[in-house]
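Morning. Coffee machine broken again, so started the prediction first thing and wrote up yesterday's gels while waiting. Chain of 217 residues, entered below exactly as on the submission form.
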Amino acid sequence: MKLLREYIRLRLLEKKWLDFNAPKGTVISLSPADFEDDAPPTVRDLDDEIFDLIQTAYADVEISPGQYGNIKVQSPADLPGKYTVMKAADLDADPEPDYFRGGQTRGGRFKLGIVGHDGTTVAIQRYLDETAEDLKSGAIGEMSDKIAHIMITRHGVPAVTTQEEVESMLGKKVEWKGRHPDEKYANRYGPDYEGWYTRSISGAAPGEHMKILLGGV
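Came back before lunch.
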C-alpha cells in the first residue's frame, strides 16, 4: 500500500501537458504546483515542454556571449520560478503545448512576464492576441522594441504615461524619458504614448533598456 501511495504521488507531481486534457485551441491556467518535478531527467514532462517554447520565443535574445534565451529561465528546472499566474494552449495536431505566458500579480493586477511559443505563425498570433486582450483588460506589461510597436500601432493598447504611476505599478524606480527619443517613433505614436523610460535589469547586459508600460486600464 505504501508503494502504491508513493507511485500515485509521483504520478500526480510528474505532470505532462496531456494530463490536463485541454481542448485544442483552448487557453488553460497552470499553477506553480503543476511544475513540481520528481521525475528523472530522462522523463519529458511539463517543465521540459514549456521550456522549449520559451527557448524558441527568446532564440534571438543574447544573455551572454554566444548564449541565447531568457535571462530568468535558462533550464527546465528554473520553472515556474517566481511566476504565479500562468497559462498555455495546444494549437496544432501534436500533443504538446504551443503557447505559454507567465506573470505575477503586482498591486492587484496581472503583470505580464515571460512568454513561450513554438515559432509557428498560429502560435505567434495567439501570443499577440492574448497579450493585447490581457493588456486591454487591466493587466500591465513592460514592452519594448517590436512587441511594443505592435501593441501600440496594431492593437491600440493604452500606455501609462506618468513616472509616478509607472513606478507605483512596478514597485521600482525608472529613469524617465517621456517622449520616445527617436523622432520617427515619437511622431508615429503621438502624445498618448509619451511614457518611455529605462531601468536596469538584473542579469541583463549593461546599457539602456528602453521600455513603456502598457495596459493598466
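The first helix runs from residue 2 to 13. Going to sketch it on the whiteboard this afternoon.
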